Amino acid sequence: MSRTWRSAAVIVCGPLLLVGCASGGVLDASREDLIPVQAGVLPDRDIETRIIPAEDRGEPLSLLGQDTEGTMIDTVDLRGQPLVINAWASWCAPCLEEAPILTAAANDPRTQAQFLGLRVMDDMGEAPPALAELPFTSLLDRDGALLVSIPGVPPRAIPSTTVLDAEGRIAAQRIGPLTPEILTEMVTAASQ
Questions:
Q1: What is the C-alpha separation between 76 and 50, in angstroms, rounded?
Q2: If we measure between CA atoms, which residue out of 136, 151, 20 comes closest to residue 78?
Q3: Which CATH number fits domain 3-190: 3.40.1190.10, 3.10.150.10, 3.40.50.300, 3.40.30.10?
Q4: How many of the other CB atoms lie within 10 Å of CB of 92?
Q5: Using one digit for the tens of pLDDT, what is the confidence trace for 91-117?
Q6: Domain ranges in the chain?
Q7: Residues 57, 17, 73, 58: what is their CA dihedral angle, to the nearest 10 degrees?
Q8: Confidence tier at 155 by pLDDT (50, 70, 90)
Q9: Which of 27, 98, 127, 154 has the most crowded Cβ, counting Cβ within 10 A?
Q10: Which tens digit of pLDDT belongs to each residue from 36-57?
Q11: Using an 8 Å Cβ cutoff, are 37 and 94 in contact?
């Protein structure tokens, strides 16, 4: 690859690796320039949603971590039904915006899925009410190691959502905030 092409690749692809609420390792709740969300408004355009046909899904994903109560959770034990894994942080404004969407889906008996959070690169202090009251447990991911172990998710991709099928294989991913319609589409894809 020529030096010109490498430079162009860095210019074009570099910003894609920084999708999320933080940049350069600095966690700053006032920075929303990496996911274009205005206060109180989720974008209706598709940032990036990937639906994977059943025949193209890879090996099952296994995440093992400790939840906020100190209990070890292994996603292997959650197989048998689709699993929605949502990466969030208390300092992430888009995460706050999508919290009611996740809460409504997790509380809706028609949603045929389990939910698990990943509290990523957070100071682990008290989360804002919308996130503290999520009706599902979250694994603590202080250094982001669990998040980066999910194939297809860039480092610091917060919020991001990965939906596993009943066998634990990645069926759908969204880098960026959810809408109710997109979450429904992802869970439906994982059910097929």
A1: 22
A2: 136
A3: 3.40.30.10
A4: 29
A5: 999 999 999 999 999 999 999 999 999
A6: 3-190
A7: 10
A8: confident
A9: 98
A10: 333 344 444 446 799 999 999 9
A11: yes
